[in-house]
Amino acid sequence: MKLLAYLPPLPPLLFAVLTVGGLASKALHIALHIHSLPFLYFVLYAPTLVLPDLLVIAFVRVLLHTPSPETKLQWVWACLGGLLSLIVWSASSIQFGFFMQTGAEVAWAASNSFLSDPAAMKILLSGISTVCAAATVLALVAWLAHAKLYHWTGLGLQAIQDLFKGSYKMRYTLLGVPNKSWINKSWLTTMDLRTVRRIAIAVSLCSSLIFLELTRPSIPYDHLSGALPLTLLDAFTKKSSTTGGCRQTPMKFPLWTDVNTGFMTNSWSRPSWLPQNPPPGFSHYEHSPDERAEKDNPAWYLCNDNEPGFYNPKTDPLKISNLGGDIYEPLKAAFNEHSVEIDHVILLTLESGRKELFPMQQGTPMFDALLESHTEEHRDEAIDRLVTMTPIAQMLTGEYSTDSKGEKVDLSGANWHDPAEEGMGGLNVRGALTGSTLTFKSILGSHCGVQPLPVDLLEETGLEIYQPCLPQLFELFNRAKNPVSELLERDDTASGALKNPWKSVFMQSITDDYDRQDVLNKNMGFKHNVVKSTLTSRKSKYRAKGEEINYFGFAETELKPYVRDLFEEAANNRTRMFLSHVTSTTHHPWDTPDDFQLEHYMGDQGNINHKLMNSYLNSARFVDHWLGEIMTMLDETGIANSTLIVVVGDHGQAFSEDNKDMTGTYENGHIGNFRVPLVFRHPHMPRINIDVNATSISIIPTILDLLVQSHSLDARDSEMASALLPDYQGQSLIRPFIPYLKERHDSPIETPSDIDVRSSRKTQPKEGHRTRYNWNLGIINAGGSMVSVTAAGSPYRLVLPLKEGFEYVFSDLNQDPGELHPIKSWTMDDLVDDVLSKYGEAAAEWLEDAGLVGKWWVNEQRRIWGYREA
Ligand SMILES: *[C@@H]1O[C@H](CO)[C@@H](O)[C@H](O)[C@H]1NC(C)=O
Ligand SMILES: *[C@@H]1O[C@H](CO)[C@@H](O)[C@H](O)[C@H]1NC(C)=O
Ligand SMILES: *[C@@H]1O[C@H](CO)[C@@H](O)[C@H](O)[C@H]1NC(C)=O
């Protein structure tokens, strides 16, 4: 009872919670963007930024005007005011909680897709403690300040009210004396001079505010002035994109190109290699010529709903084919000797797999950042601990780490030893980037060779994937064989083995409920899935023994009996295996099973908390060990010599150690989220290091090329694979990668007139030769806010915003490989100006092209996918 006495009346407290929550949220919002605002403008427009908050505060203060409501109406107002206050308080707490976890802002527009997804809710709930902490702090401040806030705002509102009353009285008097001018002295003296002065001040204040509000640039100030709870309404309006789908004018490719981007030529006929009943995924090979020509027209998607899209490799101005190039000499020799046998394919997707960790070695910006957490005298020790973290990755890539003394690290303690001969092991790509920092969008690239849709979350699941995915390709090979006669009497001769049917299996130890992944797997053609529900089901052969380690499910090691069974089946049952396995322990919150011994990789230097990074590094070591177990099982079942293993990261993972301001992948364009390992491992393929900026869309073309060139397909399959290969967008990595073409053009560059090309191009491209880049586009989690634009063979990088509230970011990765000092700006024009003065003409020209290509691509992807915003 006594405690109750300390509780203030509710309305003032609720009001204070609203004021503190709203203003704190606004302060955070502005603080996150302040570095990119010109100081003078910011000062000038600052009042307009808080105006909406002040209006909300005044409105709620009016609703809560009495500390103890009595009449019914007062109760209704008070309840409404209270509700708004609680909403603002919660929303503000969520914003702060989210900021403390990721450094990013909550995008309310994306929240409804999250709320309808149980697994996504769990992710949100994992941050609940920071949200609660934020809520407590806000409430405490509100409690301390409630009396004063309530009182002052009351006084303020009262004054305004009096002012109006005064002016009303004044007008009344005015009307009462119609014949006299209002500047009449005798009238003025009868009025309260102070009131007049106050009104004059109020009117001029209001009009200057309105003037500022009307004249301020809409970007970024409109976004910055958004106030709680009004911004929450975004969640109920459909996402709006500046390059929206259907209603936009079609875009021609904005740069000069000698690719014919016009209509299809009508030389199409049903491919002779296509079986009568192709599996799903090949339907677009059955379009009639008219249909194809129609869909190839950029104007087609203007107003066609519910129609699958269409991709035509022949008219894609971004596609550069390297299939005319020779296969790397040592590989060619191995293929000619028929020594590379690929009966099985494993595609390992490493969750949050950063290239810097595969293997962990010295000399990366990340490694330097890790060392900085240690004092000088402990650094050598730290180096030696770090470089032994991922021994399996060292063997798979052939990149052997050196220790603090510069000596090769001893790998004898690892749980697998590479039986491949010296100099063998396959292709190791250095410089690969992911196509999306959202896991499943990235998986679409690696499994289907497509570029995902630049919209939030897995909208692709409602559409037809525009290229056949790996399981569908293998199913095509199965279909092409006479199912009855040949499968029944499979023979064991070498060429007979090529007639064995493929079996595609997907495995992960976590749930596939998250964001329609189960639908995606089905659409990609997986019929056999081992996921968390398999591990928990009573009907399953092996049930999980350990505890769940994160909000998605179990550690990968629970899959071990399933993996072994599959390998044994592949070895003994005349089956060709395609296994796709996605690891999961390396996902936030980076927990590992209890019996896994944790190491201290991080020191305590620097003013950031290294706990998360330490957990991440430990989980990476856990997964490295798990890869060792998989490799051992391959050896034990005897299929290692006939299995191609592709290892790729789904995306990277930026930490505070990379960039203090922004961590995680969500709406964070940092390069640490993009660099991934990419390895094509086969013990009988010579080791080749490939230094190119390829992306995971090269995986399918490379696998197909490898299968054909290594004679691992029979004649019919080989014909189909060779016919399909040129239709994929990516380049094959067994031939030299073409980062850009120098194209000759004699006429001056013609600028397409129907798109918005800046008239003031500072750098008119020179006549003669022009570089056509292999552009790499990367979609940033959750999909619809930003796109990363890079070009193979160019050090520059642009992060292109697709929505209000995000900035244009430029960096030069040669000079700043860790992207510590990017240039940011709210408009492309300003960014180009900045880059021109700091990096010169070539960089500015590249940047302009990148911006045009990025915008064009975002539109084009919608057409290719047949996506129309609802
Ligand atoms: C072996 O293959 C046959 C025919 O495809 C299949 O019916 C059987 O289940 C397979 N056995 C195992 C152990 O996978
Ligand atoms: C795999 O190939 C190696 C040569 O690289 C050979 O020594 C080994 O015996 C082969 N293993 C099997 C199971 O055939
Ligand atoms: C592009 O590839 C080169 C060569 O491997 C590499 O040095 C560079 O870091 C890569 N770029 C990015 C953004 O990873």
UniProtKB/TrEMBL annotation:
Residues 745-768 are annotated as: Disordered. Signal peptide: none annotated. The keyword Transmembrane helix applies. The chain crosses the membrane at residues 12-34, 40-63, 75-99, 119-145. InterPro entries: Alkaline_phosphatase_core_sf, GAG_Ulvan_Degrading_Sulfatases, Sulfatase_N. Residues 755-768 have a biased composition (Basic and acidic residues). Residues 514-707 form the Sulfatase N-terminal domain. Keywords: Membrane, Transmembrane, Transmembrane helix. PANTHER family: SULFATASE, SULFATASE N-TERMINAL DOMAIN-CONTAINING PROTEIN. This is Sulfatase N-terminal domain-containing protein. It comes from Penicillium canariense.
